[in-house]
From TrEMBL:
It comes from Frankia casuarinae (strain DSM 45818 / CECT 9043 / HFP020203 / CcI3). Decomposes hydrogen peroxide into water and oxygen; serves to protect cells from the toxic effects of hydrogen peroxide. Its cofactor is heme. Belongs to the catalase family. HPII subfamily. Residues 32-420 form the Catalase core domain. It catalyses: 2 H2O2 = O2 + 2 H2O. This is Catalase. Keywords: Heme, Hydrogen peroxide, Iron, Metal-binding, Oxidoreductase, Peroxidase.
Amino acid sequence: MTDPGTSRLPRDDAKQQQLDAVRIGDDGARMTTDQGIGVEHTDDSLAAGERGPTLLEDFHFREKLTRFDHERIPERVVHARGAGAYGYFEAYESLADVTRAHFLGEDGRRTPVFVRFSTVGGSRGSADTVRDVRGFAVKFYTEEGNFDLVGNNMPVFFIQDGIKFPDFVHAVKPEPHNEIPQASSAHNTLWDFVSLVPESMHMMMWLMSDRALPRSYRMMQGFGVHTFRFVDAAGQGTFVKFHWRPKLGTHSLVWDETQKIAGKDPDFNRRDLWESIENGTFPEWELGVQLVPESDEHAFDFDLLDATKIIPEERVPVRPVGRLVLNRNPGNFFAETEQVAFCVQNVVPGIDFTNDPLLQARLFSYLDTQLIRLGGPNFAQLPVNRPVAAVHNNSRDGYGQHRIQQSQTSYFPNSISGGCPVLSDPAHGGYVHYAERVDGNTIRKRSESFKDFYSQATLFWNSMSSWERRHIVDAFSFELGKVDYTQIKERVLGHLAQVDHELAAGVAENLGLPVPPESTPNHGRSSPALSQADQPSGVATRRIAVLAADGVDEVALRSATAALREQGAILEVLAPHGGMLATVSGDALPVDRTLVTMSSVLYDAVFVAPGERGVTALTHNGEAVHYVGEAYKHAKPIGAVGAGVSLLEIASLPGARVADQGDAVVSDRGIVTVRDLAGPSVLGDFGSAFATAVAAHRHFDRALEAVAA
Ligand code: HDE
């Protein structure tokens, strides 16, 4: 591990150069007060006599306590828990045909970024792996000022109009009378709200799907959600939807696993992001855009301004326009990840808004929330928020002003300061709002074009593979199973029946409630791009637990796992004890972790190391036997060679075919085994078969129901 925050970026990154000016280390430094006065003693307060009262004049004591008393700022009202990192965005080509945004103007142009991922409902200290939407907020420090693309890992939202946001958030947050439950949507008030607000049904399908349980921030998509507008140099607009696609594919955990991880490692997603950057395996996404000419505004059977709708990718393909690479961890969580302030209204020339009523509300809310959260109007001067573009205007005062603006005038127009700062014309980065024609009566009414609440929920359901559907039924059943009011469950079942009858019937059966009558027939359309079933995947950065004990055959172990190592997997040897393992050849194999400290839920796959004596010890170790059963239950790849196969037999995995004899590699639904290691190439064959199983992520074609784990 390198020191946290050590620079990995080239020195020509304008944002990092700016930050370097305020980065401070304590190496070799002497302790001082905030006023720079040397502190010679910090363990005892100044007192009148050895057992006497503390003296008010002890300025160091008072300063230390005062600073401590004021350490906390309000956590974000939503998205309180998160993790952030720096990196860059690199454009693939000029998009000047649709937008005048400079950062998208040239092939290879790089823009520094800070990205923050988050869960939505939980408090700052809540677990990472709860069922929830994930925030995916990107601050581009462009030469024309900051552009904040404040998105989520799901492409739609719960509500259509921002005026409903406080209602929705109050419903999903812990209930107000007892502040229970933390970071969970499985409770009365959320489902009461959902049952009464059917526009939420499409998003609820996403929330009940595996998308709400990402394996890693590095393996989830991001979406701008709203329809935004690109504007070219001539002022011509084009509707645009933003998509982030992870290079490692979109992959999820399973529900039982997420609940266990929440206890075993509440920082699971944070740690994963941090470690992958420290290890130099930099997370990467591709930015894509769906473009719709203004003339096609009404060409769809939904409204482009309705944030509960997607534009199916089969209808409007996603055009790749650049890539995002995260390559540097923050050096100070509070200063950077906590104080970063994303504002949806931060756009650069060439990017503009639409009349989506959810977006319009956000244009107000983000600035407003930063004022209370960060204590005043100068939050944009905080190092992580500062643009790399020059800032000049006539705003001067307010809490926390860090700049010393020198001019005599702070108004416009002026003649005393030569009129400065003078206005920026478009040729000098001046932002000109899109000249949209607006005409209408003042009215409080949802547009009729927003009123189809179910078609796209059905589209989502139809696009799922059979195991994804199973998970959705299970999720609705779990969540509604936590609801105390039958009428709420029945109302939700009524909505589900409008989405798909089989879905409603499955959930009703699990809840022990009458199956609602079939109402709307399923329209039968699907969008294959919505499924996670056939995602690109790979072995790189996958974490493999290698179960071993004294008596391990480390030579065979190395050959069997060579392919995984070559493809960039992270293998960790787990054993009943720490330190070193005695191997069959008389050498010593270092143990990375003990079995009791690391559960199977913290790994992507399990490999049982060969060696008669070692495996015998593992078969008598409840932790090891449980490891294999639990990995099987969570559909994870499991590999074993030689004597290692017997641990799989002891764990009795229903329906799992394992090698019984000979040197043929058996690969059955992600369980890869070979018994006889005599043949020269058998371990190589095993290695590549196991790597293929690991690359597939999970194997849901197993009989999982009967497995206890
Ligand atoms: Fe947010 N949202 N939001 N939101 N949101 C906040 O801003 C809000 C919405 C999203 O890592 C808050 O700084 C309203 C959609 C992310 O710092 C607040 C509405 C999407 C983050 C706020 C929405 C998001 C926030 C809380 C409905 C996806 C975390 C703290 C009109 C496109 C950013 C803060 C970070 C944070 C308001 C809906 C994404 C209160 C009023 C839709 C990723 O301003």
